[in-house]
Amino acid sequence: MAARGWLTPRRRSATARSVLAGEAAAEAARKATRDLDEPLPETGLAAPEEAEEAKEAGEPEEPAEDFPVPGDVRAAAFFDLDNTVMQGAALFHFGRGLYKRKFFQRRELARFAWQQTWFRLAGVEDPEHMQDVRESALSIVQGHRVSELMSIGEEIYDEYMADRIWPGTRALAQAHLDAGQKVWLVTAAPVETATIIARRLGLTGALGTVAESVDGVYTGKLVGEPLHGPAKAEAVRALAAAEGLDLARCAAYSDSHNDIPMLSLVGHPYAINPDTKLRKHARERDWRLRDYRTGRKAAKVGIPAAAGVGALAGGTAAAVALHRRRR
């Protein structure tokens, strides 16, 4: 997808870049949905037996209410991906696949590992540091064709992602589909990767980070910024406007407090496998909570979403994967 321009933090405010990223994601999502000829064979979501397994595992049951409302075409559902629909981060798994295919070398892994470690320890997103991380990761895919990354993404889904989908969240998504509503993934992962996952799960489509491409080749630049935090809310807002949706009748699902802007947009927010901050926020506002993790693992345990550092190509995530294998 051709970009509208490469915008650095110094040239536009964070709000302007978030809006640009959100609008680009909505445009790319609608285009991908229009271009889709036929769904891939593997499209079923949660089977009845999966829902029963979730119940036996101690997961909370859905309240006895008429939601989602059957036939309400002005309603839709928006699902965060990492740790909400899928265990771990999509970029973590995508990065493993790219490293396996020799997209980058070990000397690059050392740099990505340091950047990821700094982010995890500091817990903040310094603009200059974040831009350096983004540029480092984007350089991995620069010069590669979009079609090549899409093909590789299909393989990586089968290798690392297919068996990491939360059955409980799949059942929630299926309920919206059964009610005749559209279901969208919303993630900071590359829109191409997100679209593959959505198609393989039988969902409507995906909103994701848009990388600039010219004549089908990645330039190594982003459109706006990663689809993270406020940018996700802008993407949902833009898509809702284009699709004629009533956000007050829509639902959104996420595990992270970073997605509070998106969750606050809709009339039916859900905290799924929530981190500590989101759990507290959700309880204060009487939002519905669901936790599908075995033994309700603490939010601080697990793989952080590499999207938080804007690592579009998954290089940072791959560094973490390599480090863990060595340990």
Walk me through what this model shows.
The radius of gyration is 18 Å and the shape is globular. The protein has a 6-stranded parallel sheet, sandwiched between helices. Strands 4-5 form a two-stranded antiparallel sheet. A hairpin with a 2-residue loop joins strand 4 and strand 5. It is built from 12 helices and 8 strands. It starts with 13 loop residues before the first helix and ends with a helix. The chain has helices spanning 14-35, 48-56, 90-100, 106-122, 127-141, 146-161, 167-178, 191-200, 230-243, 260-263, 276-284, 315-326, and strands at 76-80, 182-190, 205-209, 211-214, 217-222, 251-254, 268-272, 288-290. Residues 1-13, 37-64, 122-127 and 296-327 have low confidence and may be disordered. Helix 1 (14-35) packs across helix 9 and helix 3 packs across helix 12. Helix content is 46%, strand content 13%. It is an alpha/beta fold and 327 residues long.
